[in-house]
Specification:
131 residues; alpha+beta; three-stranded antiparallel β-sheet; 36% strand
């Protein structure tokens, strides 16, 4: 099960939000559409320090290639103090589910091939009969 939490609103009254939830596939889009400002700095907490992952005027950024685990982000606008932290938990689909989908697809393909072969043989048989 995937879970995300967002802390209290940013200092300027807005929040960092999850705009596109692909956490079970290893990506997520963080957005700050309602945050006042023209230049934004998005940081991720890794190890024991904050690292810049986006800096610019856009109002969202997509993070991809995320492995299972917990991530922490914060946003600041126009060089101001960072807002509260935003926690994100990534948990990919289990491998058993992927194999289940693969198996279902393989069964459907086999049924389709059988139907096509049977239909083609019946069609050949119908052509040889006089009307």
């Amino acid at each position: 099960m995937t879970v995300f939490t967002a802390s209290a609103p940013l200092a300027f009254g807005q929040t960092l939000t999850l705009a596109d939830d692909g956490r079970s596939a290893g990506y997520a889009t963080l957005a700050w559409a309602a945050v006042d400002g023209n230049s934004f700095l998005l940081e991720e907490y890794e190890g024991d320090e904050w690292h810049t992952i986006y800096e610019g005027g856009d109002r969202a950024t997509t993070l991809s290639g995320l492995v299972d685990g917990s991530y922490r982000f914060r946003l600041s606008a126009d060089g101001g103090a960072p807002g509260p932290e935003f926690d994100l938990t990534v948990a990919h689909h289990p491998l058993s589910r992927a194999f289940g989908f693969f198996g279902a697809g393989a069964v459907m393909l086999a049924v389709l091939i059988v139907l096509l072969v049977v239909g083609a043989r019946r069609h050949e048989g119908d052509e040889g009969e006089p009307s």
